[in-house]
């Protein structure tokens, strides 16, 4: 809190005006519209709208498609988070041992952050293309027939790999910063007491890294749930058989392609509740710091 | 380094080299594919080494594009992407630096409410409220325009928070000295605050440029005229057409062109990039 401030009643509002105007027109107003529409239903011709109370929400929670989408989203988010954080931690621990080569390796590992999710999707889709991709070709050599166009589990593997690939560099940078913040004296003391590298990793590094890990856990779940729209859209489009139809994709699809406004709005409201919960968790725990 | 363990050190190098290779694999494959001719993919698998058509494929995409997919030349789409990325980065920085200044250096009624209005944008990513936001933009007649591409994306709580943190660390004595010398708020803002936040602005610019360049769903929805296609959203339109007629080499050349500018920014400004990334997420 500043002690020295300027006294002016009008100026602060002028300074805030652009930000508040954009927030109101493009954030709060659409969000309010989504909430309003979630209680309405249009008839088949779009001519009459009636107030239906919580009917849209009730239908959604009873719809096998939506429940499937929830399950798919959970599997997807957990797989992306574990895969990208696991690989990033391994690489960060390895880079942390380096002295001269640290900068070179870091440069070679961070650039995928800059690749658009849509481009990442296209690249992996090409690699996994059943007719000309190199991975299906290699799998065919060992007798496995890869076809993600018809097999939901393989489609899920594809979108998980494409999404995790892009996120490794982000996790890597945060893990590396976390590792470098651990005082060397702690590791040295443990080494003098006879703890080997493995023991030191589990008894010192992992606990002291827990604030970073927790932060990344939330960020990765948010990424997998909300920022992977482009990956899905450029690879599987939610298919086959709804196998990769995650929640953000379903909102878009039901709203724009299916033209089911009531249901799409109700889904938006659910998603907003999820984002709000995740944001609150993130802010509360970052203040407290998960540490020993 | 705590103790000398040559084996572990070797292992670390092996892990890192493997990691670098896995991370680079998809881009290598795309690059190789983009240097071959259209018939090289008919033999079942794609080749693993670059072919002779590099110049031909890239120059064709840059000035003519893939007419069958209805997309314009890649050069045009890259220009649109550049305009969009720059407008979003500059716009976000300008409006958040102003609002952070108002929130930190003034006391006024409803200050808390204004702060919360900004904070709530953190919780409403565009994907979540996509249908109503599209309707608002359509009602305002902003479809197929640079304004429609950029303005809805430039409100940013994270940038406002970042500048708020930066301003809070600037000592009060500076403000007092400026006031004693007779400087008004805007003079103080221009001559003291902005120069002191220069590196933060640059770091944030790198992050926001990448964010703007990589937008996908928004440009895909609000541009129906080929004049406003951005490259990242344009690729999908090309890939759609590819299903009928395999033009893999050209699609992959476009993918390479789509990632070169942001990757160059990240590698070229690595120090600023890491600073921007770590600070905005605090």
TrEMBL record, chain A:
UniProt keyword terms in alphabetical order: Cell inner membrane, Cell membrane, Membrane, Transmembrane, Transmembrane helix, Transport
Similarity comment text for this entry: Belongs to the binding-protein-dependent transport system permease family.
Record's protein name: sn-glycerol-3-phosphate transport system permease protein UgpA
Annotated function: Part of the ABC transporter complex UgpBAEC involved in sn-glycerol-3-phosphate (G3P) import. Probably responsible for the translocation of the substrate across the membrane.
Spans traversing the lipid bilayer: 70-95, 107-128, 206-226, 265-286
Organismal lineage: Bacteria, Pseudomonadati, Pseudomonadota, Alphaproteobacteria, Rhodobacterales
NCBIfam families from the UniProt entry: PRK10561.1 (NF007852)
InterPro entries named among the record's database cross-references: MetI-like, MetI-like_sf, UgpAE/MalFG_permease
Membrane topology term: Multi-pass membrane protein
GO terms for biological process, alphabetical: transmembrane transport
GO cellular component, one term: plasma membrane
Residue stretches making up the ABC transmembrane type-1 domain: 70-282
Pfam families in the cross-refs: BPD_transp_1
Compartment(s) where it occurs, according to its Swiss-Prot or TrEMBL record: Cell inner membrane; Cell membrane
Oligomer and partners: The complex is composed of two ATP-binding proteins (UgpC), two transmembrane proteins (UgpA and UgpE) and a solute-binding protein (UgpB).
Organism: Paracoccus tibetensis
From TrEMBL, chain B:
Keyword Iron: no
Main location: membrane
Presence of keyword Zinc-finger: no
Membrane-topology descriptor: Multi-pass membrane protein
Top-level taxon: Bacteria
One record GO biological process: transmembrane transport
Pfam families: BPD_transp_1
InterPro entries: MetI-like (IPR000515), MetI-like_sf (IPR035906)
Protein function: Part of the ABC transporter complex UgpBAEC involved in sn-glycerol-3-phosphate (G3P) import. Probably responsible for the translocation of the substrate across the membrane.
Descriptive protein name: sn-glycerol-3-phosphate transport system permease protein UgpE
Gene giving rise to this polypeptide: ugpE
């Amino acid at each position: 809190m500043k002690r020295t401030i300027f006294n002016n009643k009008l100026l602060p509002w002028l300074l805030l005006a652009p930000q508040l105007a954009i927030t109101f027109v493009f954030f709060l107003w659409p969000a309010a519209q989504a909430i309003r529409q979630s209680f309405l239903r249009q008839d088949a011709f779009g001519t009459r709208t009636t107030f239906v109370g919580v009917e849209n929400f009730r239908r959604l929670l009873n719809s096998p498609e939506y429940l499937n989408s929830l399950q798919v989203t959970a599997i997807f988010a957990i797989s992306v988070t574990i895969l990208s954080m696991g690989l990033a931690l391994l690489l960060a621990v390895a880079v942390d041992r380096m002295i001269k080569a640290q900068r070179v390796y870091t440069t070679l590992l961070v650039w995928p952050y800059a690749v658009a999710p849509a481009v990442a999707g296209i690249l992996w889709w090409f690699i996994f293309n059943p007719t000309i991709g190199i991975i299906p070709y290699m799998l065919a050599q060992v007798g496995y027939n890869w076809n993600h166009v018809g097999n939901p589990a393989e489609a899920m593997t594809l979108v998980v790999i494409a999404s995790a690939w892009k996120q490794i560099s982000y996790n890597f940078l945060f893990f590396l910063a976390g590792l470098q913040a651990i005082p060397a004296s702690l590791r040295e003391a443990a080494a003098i007491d006879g703890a080997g590298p493995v023991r030191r990793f589990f008894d010192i590094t992992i606990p002291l890294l827990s604030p970073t890990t927790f932060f990344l856990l939330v960020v990765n779940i948010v990424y997998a749930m909300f920022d992977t729209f482009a990956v899905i859209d450029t690879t599987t489009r939610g298919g086959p058989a709804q196998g990769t139809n995650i929640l953000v994709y379903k909102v878009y699809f039901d709203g724009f392609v299916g033209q089911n406004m009531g249901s799409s709005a109700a889904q938006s409201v659910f998603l907003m509740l999820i984002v709000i919960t995740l944001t609150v968790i993130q802010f509360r725990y970052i203040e407290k710091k998960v540490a020993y | 380094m705590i103790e000398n363990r040559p084996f572990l050190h070797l292992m670390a190098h092996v892990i890192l080299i493997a990691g670098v290779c896995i991370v680079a694999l998809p881009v290598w494959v795309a690059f190789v594919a983009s240097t071959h001719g259209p018939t090289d993919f008919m033999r079942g698998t794609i080749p693993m080494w670059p072919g002779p058509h590099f110049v031909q494929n890239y120059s064709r995409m840059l000035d003519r594009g893939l007419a069958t997919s209805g997309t314009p030349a890649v050069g045009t789409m890259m220009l649109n992407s550049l305009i969009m990325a720059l407008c979003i980065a500059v716009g976000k920085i300008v409006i958040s630096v102003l609002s952070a200044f108002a929130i930190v250096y003034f006391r006024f009624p409803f200050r808390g409410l204004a702060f919360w209005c900004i904070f709530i944008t953190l919780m409403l990513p565009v994907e979540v409220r996509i249908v109503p936001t599209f309707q608002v933009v359509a009602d305002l007649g902003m479809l197929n325009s640079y304004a429609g591409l950029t303005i809805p994306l430039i409100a940013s709580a994270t940038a406002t928070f970042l500048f708020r943190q930066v301003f809070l660390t600037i000592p009060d004595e500076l403000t007092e000295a400026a006031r004693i010398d007779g400087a008004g708020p805007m003079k103080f803002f221009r001559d003291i605050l902005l120069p002191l936040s220069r590196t933060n602005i640059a770091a944030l610019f790198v992050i926001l440029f990448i964010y703007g360049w990589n937008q996908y769903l928004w440009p895909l929805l609000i541009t129906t005229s080929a004049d406003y296609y951005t490259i990242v959203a344009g690729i999908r339109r090309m890939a759609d057409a590819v299903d009928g007629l395999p033009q893999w080499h050209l699609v992959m050349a476009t993918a390479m062109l789509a990632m070169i500018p942001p990757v160059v920014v990240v590698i070229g400004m690595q120090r600023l990039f890491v600073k921007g990334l770590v600070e905005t997420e605090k």
